[in-house]
Every structure is written in C-alpha cells, then in structure tokens.
Amino acid sequence: MRKPFIAGNWKMYKTPAETKVFFKQLLPLIEKTDIEVGICPPFIDLETAINMAKESSIGIGAQDVYWEEEGAFTGEVSPSMLFSIGCRYCIVGHSERRQYFGETDETVNKKVKALLKHQITPIVCVGESLEQREQGVTEKVCATQIKQGLQGLTPQEAEKIVIAYEPIWAIGTGKTASAEDAQETIKYIRSVLAECFGESPAQKIRIQYGGSVKPGNIKELMAQPDIDGALVGGASLKAEDFAAIINYNKK
Asked: DSSP per residue over 134-160, as a string?
C-alpha cells in the first residue's frame, strides 16, 4: 500500500517572516493526518520552515539542487548542504527549470543520483506541453523523461523516488487534466517504471499529479488507483487551501 504524499511547491514566493506566519496558520489545521506532507519553499526559507515544522510530521524540501558536493559553482546548493539542515525532499526536473534554466534529462539524472546518496527523496517531475499533447506524443515524452532521468538506478534506488506527473499546460493556468486523463497517463508512467525496474518496484513508487490542484478537485484525483498524491503549486501558498487539500479524505 503506497502512502499518499501531498507536497507544496512554493516556487519564488514568501519571505522567512511570511513562512512563519504560514506555519502558525497551517499546523493547527492538520494536527491529525495520515497523509505524508511536504513543503518545498525557496532556499532562503528552508531553515525557517524546518524549525517551524520540527514539532509536526511535515517534511521540508528544496526546489532544486546541484549534483556536486562542493566547489566553484556560484549560486548553487549541494545535496550535502540540504541534508545538513534537515531537508527531506528535493524537486528536480520541474518544467519551469527545464524551460527557463536549461534543465535536461541528463542533469535530472545527475541530481537524482546525488540526492539519493544523501538520503534525500527526489521528486522527479515529468510532463508534456500543450503542443506535445495535441500532437499525441504525451506517452513518448513522459517515457523519455523517465528512462533518461532515472537511467542507471537500481530497482532499490528507484523505490525511494517520487514521480510527479505535471502536464505543463495545466501548471498555473487554472486548467486541470481530468481525473480520468491524469489516471490514464500515470498508469502508463507506472508501466514504464515496471519496464525499467520490474513490476514490484513500480508498484511501490509513488506518483503524484501536479497542475492546478485545488481543494475542489483533490478528492476526485486521489480516488484514482494510480494517483498517490499531489504536487501543489498556488494552492499551497494559502494555509486554509493547503490544509483542505491535505484533509481531502476527512470531508
């Protein structure tokens, strides 16, 4: 049985002071949850978030990482640095990193391997653009991103990662893939994982859906057999909305 995992990606929002306010609002709203919860704030908020979450079950993650241990890499942050302050997760391969900052499947692969060495769970993002969807190549795009992004991992290592299927056309647009469409693609992603690592590991790997996830659509998404959670963008910035998503099964 895969434990549901809901994570928030704050992108480039919130100062440390705003992070404190958010956690003070959120924590009383999710005191009793059997869902795994993660929040990935900007780098400058990580330590504040970790301190605010330490009495809770919430894990804190980063939004990116560099694969080297240390060195002359101005502006970058290493996995060992993230581990040293208590980061549990790290998003890699987000479409915005691919689109604006040159992230490739090859660099995703390096980052995944570096994170696993430091017991940090990679949240590996895959997904197609609107143009690719209209061309009917969604499955091909996702399969390539998974096969190249996870190349060289053992089945045991693969079981430790999380996949986030995020159709690019649904991120921040208010458009959401229907629960059935999301399920169909995520089921296919699981079949690709089975092809790469075997059926048993593929059944253990959690796959989230991301793309305009809101309190109003989370329950329907989570009812799908292959959707194990959500990577939440805008709705994770408001404590009440994020709590409503986390508490989807209590309504």
From this structure: HTT-HHHHHHHHHHHHTTT--HHHHTT
The rounded distance, in Å, linking the Cα atoms of 82 and 43 is 9
Range of the domain at 157: 5-250
- The domain that holds 111 is classified in CATH as 3.20.20.70
Mean pLDDT of 139-151: 96
Tell me the pLDDT tens digit for each residue of 191-241.
999 999 999 999 999 999 998 899 999 999 999 999 999 999 999 999 999
Tell me the pLDDT band of 251, cut-offs 50, 70 and 90: low
Pick the catalytic residue: 118, 131, 166, 195? 166
For residue range 34-63, list pLDDT tens digits in order.
899 999 999 999 999 999 999 999 999 999
Start-end of H helices in 93-238:
95-101, 105-117, 130-134, 138-149, 155-158, 179-197, 199-204, 218-222
Q: 37-62: string of b/e by CB count within 10 Å (b at 16+)?
A: bbbbbbeebbbbbbbbbeeeebbbbb
How many domains does the chain fold into? 1
For the segment 136-144, the average pLDDT, to the nearest whole number, is 93
Q: Which of 36, 94, 96, 128 is catalytic?
A: 94
Active site residue 118: no
